[in-house]
Amino acid sequence: MTNKAIPVIRHFFDPKTFSLTYLVSDPVSKQAVIIDPVLDFDPAAMRTTTTLAKKLLAAIDSDGLDLRWILETHAHADHLTSAHWLKTQTGAKVVVGEHIDKVQQVFNRLYELDGEQAANTADFDQLVCDGDELDLGELKIRVLHTPGHTPSCCTYLIGENAFVGDTLFMPDYGTARCDFPGGDARELYHSIQRILALPDNTQLYMCHDYQPGGRELQWQTTVKNQRESNIHIHQGISESQFVQLRQSRDQTLSLPKLIMPALQINIRAGKFPQKTAQGNQFIKLPLNRF
Length: 290
Fold this sequence. Notes:
Layout: E1 8-14, E2 19-25, E3 31-35, E4 38-42, E5 47-49, H1 51-62, E6 66-71, E7 80-81, H2 83-90, E8 93-97, H3 100-111, E9 126-128, E10 133-136, E11 139-145, E12 154-158, E13 161-163, H4 185-196, E14 203-205, E15 220-222, H5 223-229, H6 239-250, H7 259-266
Helix pairs in contact: 4-6
């Protein structure tokens, strides 16, 4: 993280899903990247809208930015992604970790998706692996593979900033769950150690803030703060202690409310199911599987 250019970072919060989307730009070239964009979804009406995504486009337009990349830290289970819609509006490339294929295989089987309806890696424009770099004007985006929550989770480093996805939350909320297919608490422990090995002043940007106790929204902290005060994995917590804590906590958690529609859309980079002859699109909701 030696690049001298300092990125401009804007956050956008979706209170319905407690999700944070970031618009990051290089002030010199005006090239920009969106990280973890949210698609508005009303599960009762089964209706999607693009209110939040349009706010991103408005910010891009007002700042005169050139959107180059749309980065997914992983296939989210708690909100739908607007990545595909944003791509159709801007031509930006949608990027995800190379191990998305493991996630797609699991959920293709669960939803019984096959043929053209099945998710595959070609749904994304570019797959990245640990150590890869993407150009962003005078900046570089460096990829850390940080699995544990899901097999494909990645952290994106831009300058002295790390966008950690669901790997870590704010120190008062802890760490990501590991009970989804392909999740692993031991892997998550080692992924977090890689993040906490970054310089103390590295700024960490959260993908969610659940505002415990009703406190005000927080989305940014530092490696030093996480190492000192994260309630699940502060300095002194051993691997075995963390694994026991994480596995015990995961057994008490309910499934995310939007997991069924979200994953069916998100494993395909935000593409909707194909229309039927009557022009309808359907989400599958398997009964009694969880």
